[in-house]
UniProtKB/TrEMBL annotation:
Protein name: ABC transporter ATP-binding protein
Molecular function GO labels: ATP binding; ATP hydrolysis activity
Species name: Paenibacillus ginsengarvi
SUPFAM superfamilies recorded: P-loop containing nucleoside triphosphate hydrolases
Residues covered by the ABC transporter domain: 5-229
Length: 289
């Protein structure tokens, strides 16, 4: 396993607010990550720190084993920001031409194809674009740059469902041909479940959770049953969240259940269902574990 990026004990404060607190994180090469977290969890702060746009109060960032110095930008890296006001007067094509200069792997044929896929007029000025169209220009840059480390902050903000699907399809197809490390920060959690391979969840400036999406599919379960039965079944298992209803208990657990477990659940009259990524996220955050 090769490491694309490491954050060590990263801290960022704004006045008395801790935006990131003692954050340790490793991103592997050639993996698509979904970066999740509630409003204010620290996602944009983390991405801005990696991109060198702001400086940490403490801690280190290494890109492919090389420590970033203060003010140093990561080499061969693409950061697609949530908002980019700087290009208001420029035309879409000019913005792409500008971006192309910074990315050695830039593919113009791919970029032109994406303009058509996303129905963008390359001669329109950035300030004439809708919110969604603005996101799409950023997404073309993220895709066509083919940077070994590509980071998107809310790439589907303002996009209609059709354009979101087109973006995910283009990303997954291109990634299959040109693997790289991609981080997608988003609030559209179930959509990212069809794209990401690993999930990072930030909460209050710390990394609450980091695992393969496949493991989440296997291990995230919701149980419902009599309170005593659920208590007995979940003993020794990782319980994320519990809630009482009447004489019953609902429990969200993070545990692979084998045939023996399923048999025990049936005997105890406990229903089991797998959690969607979004439900898993909600229970994890609500439970605070
Ligand atoms: N420039 C700033 N000045 C002061 N506080 C800030 C600044 N930027 C972020 N913060 C604070 O840092 C914390 C983390 O914010 P951040 O924008 O990183 O969260 P986020 O996870 O990206 O949120 P969202 O999902 O709402 O975009 C919040 O408490 C926020 O209020």
């Amino acid at each position: 396993m090769s490491i694309a990026m490491t954050c060590g004990n990263l801290n960022k404060t704004y006045g008395r607010t801790y935006a990131l607190r003692n954050l340790d994180l490793q991103l592997e090469e050639n993996v698509i990550y979904g970066l999740l977290g509630r409003n204010g969890a620290g996602k944009t702060t983390l991405l801005n720190l990696i991109a060198g746009g702001i400086f940490p109060n403490g801690g280190t960032i290494e890109i492919r084993g090389k420590k970033l110095r203060k003010g140093e930008l990561p080499a061969d890296f693409c950061y697609v920001r949530e908002k980019n006001k700087a290009f208001g007067g420029a035309r879409v094509l000019e913005v792409l031409q500008f971006a192309a200069k910074f990315h050695p792997n830039w593919d113009w044929t791919f970029a032109q194809g994406l303009l058509q896929t996303f129905r963008l007029d390359p001669h329109k000025k950035m300030r004439q674009l809708s919110r969604g169209m603005e996101s799409l220009v950023g997404n073309i840059i993220g895709l066509a740059s083919r940077a070994p480390l590509t980071i998107y902050d809310e790439p589907v903000l303002g996009l209609d469902v059709l354009m979101r699907e087109r973006f995910y399809k283009a990303l997954v197809e291109d990634y299959a041909n040109y693997p790289r490390t991609i981080v997608l920060s988003t609030h559209l959690i179930d959509e990212i479940a069809t794209v990401a391979e690993k999930v990072l969840i930030l909460e209050a400036g710390s990394l609450l959770f980091h695992d393969d999406l496949e493991n989440i599919h296997k291990a995230a379960h919701l149980l419902r049953g009599h309170a005593d039965s659920v208590a007995s079944f979940t003993a020794g298992k990782r319980v994320l969240y519990t809630e009482a209803y009447g004489r019953g208990t609902l429990a969200a657990i993070y545990e692979e259940l084998d045939e023996g477990d399923m048999e025990q659940a049936r005997k105890l009259d406990i229903s089991t269902e797998r959690l969607t990524l979004q439900k898993f996220f909600s229970y994890l955050i609500e439970g605070g574990s």
